[in-house]
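Sequence in, structure out. Go.
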Amino acid sequence: MQLFFIFITGAVFGSFINFVSSRLVSGQSLWVQRSECDSCHKPLAWHDLIPMLNFVWLKGRCRYCQAKLPQYLPLVELFSAVAFCFLFSKFGFGLVFFLWVLFLLLFLLNALTDYLTYNIYNVPLYALLLVSVGIALTQASFLWQLAQSVLFTLIIFIVAKILGYFLKKETMGSGDYYILFALGIIFELQSLVWLLFIASLSGIGAYFLVKKKQMPFVPLLFLATIILVLIK
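Output:
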């Protein structure tokens, strides 16, 4: 019963991440208006906001205008629900659990906005950095992790600039370096190498599946991080 409650709570937070990402992308305030359909702008009732189940009931369409809903919506809610359960099973209730929940939710939000707009917004990005520092402070070697993160990010920056010089285009955005710095504080160097390797392989696979000419890097880093957390 406890795990079921955790699952439902995670799904609700996933729905909230969908809401926040939609508002950030559209430039709307988070506080003024109720949730609404992005197509017809009809305010949504409470029963239109039930995570995952509502998408199934409405067959992936708006109740009012029948416009197709983005297919990632239930996936985000399901991921959040499963992540809550996994983290609870691994850490139990406590500071570390809440820090990792915040980290993954903020990382998910940054990955979503990057996927939708190729843009990372300052507030969720800086919040992610702050939470990553909080996680690092719960570990034994904070100063070593901090120095490692600076060196790791600097090396990636230099390599990206060299590649950009020869390819005649930017290979990474500024937000990507902040994300890498946040990851560098938390994970050991070996894990970071694996993270980059998994993200690169995921990018190749995503190119053929999603058919995007340019795949944003943060969603790939997010996917790689999830895989790394699961196998650690």
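Check: Residues 142-167 form the longest helix (26 residues). The CA atoms of residues 112 and 179 lie 14 Å apart.
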